[in-house]
């Protein structure tokens, strides 16, 4: 028999979403409610295991009485609130944000961005060939994962996952100002010389592919990475007795990367270095 934990009961709030009355548990964000009723709101910096940082501003909506557009990922639903998600003002804001992001960094490996660019008729090339762009070579300074800051949108998710929200290693932070701001380790040292413990939880939350397994990076470079051919199998990590869940991504009978289910009550998507990267012995053919 499966027992579903009931948790602490939450009061239901009533408010208006795009002219329709809705009810949502107290503490829900506007984005939570939109997803619950099937409204597709684009977002890049929001993560289901992290506290929203309001960094990307792609999910903005209009709230009656608010002077500015508000981020749906962090604004809590309130009783009597009137929310409009598809107004001209909100759509124009999303369009401009997408154009600015896509013109400054490489979003080719960011899920759904191509779809959103088309939906909002965003044209990143309208800024011309002289638009400022992050052109950095990928940093390959260890055997486990690659840092490609040319794809980084500074969403802060990796910093939060490494810091006080999960790992508490504090190996990375944002250095520099303005367009020169980058996620970096202390003194911008090579990763092996930093405090990084290679848990890979930063990779788990990265929305753009700026952080990726070396195996994925190499396969993409070779043109062999194909998620449509990959199977996903969730199992239990055998390294210790904690019971962390692993999802093995397998292509052509080879494990190409490991993730963890975000809804797992043990790990919430987080792993240690053994669970995340210690899979090579499984497919050692020697």
Explain what you see:
It is globular, with a radius of gyration of 21 Å. The longest helix is centred in the middle third of the chain and has 17 residues, at 88-104. It has helices at 30-36, 88-104, 113-119, 157-162, 201-205, 214-222, 273-277, and strands spanning 12-17, 20-25, 60-63, 70-71, 82-84, 145-147, 172-175, 182-185, 211-213, 231-236, 245-251, 254-259. The termini are far apart. The protein has 286 residues and is an alpha+beta fold. The strands form 4 sheets. Strands 2-1-5-3-4 form a 5-stranded mixed sheet, sandwiched between helices. It has a 3-stranded antiparallel sheet with strand order 10-11-12. Strands 6-9 form a two-stranded antiparallel ribbon.
Keywords:
alpha+beta, 3-stranded antiparallel β-sheet, 12 strands, 286 residues, 20% helix
In short:
With 286 residues, the chain is of the alpha+beta class.
Write the layout of secondary structure elements.
Layout: E1 12-17, E2 20-25, H1 30-36, E3 60-63, E4 70-71, E5 82-84, H2 88-104, H3 113-119, E6 145-147, H4 157-162, E7 172-175, E8 182-185, H5 201-205, E9 211-213, H6 214-222, E10 231-236, E11 245-251, E12 254-259, H7 273-277
Parallel strand pairs: 1-5
Antiparallel strand pairs: 1-2, 3-4, 3-5, 6-9, 7-8, 10-11, 11-12
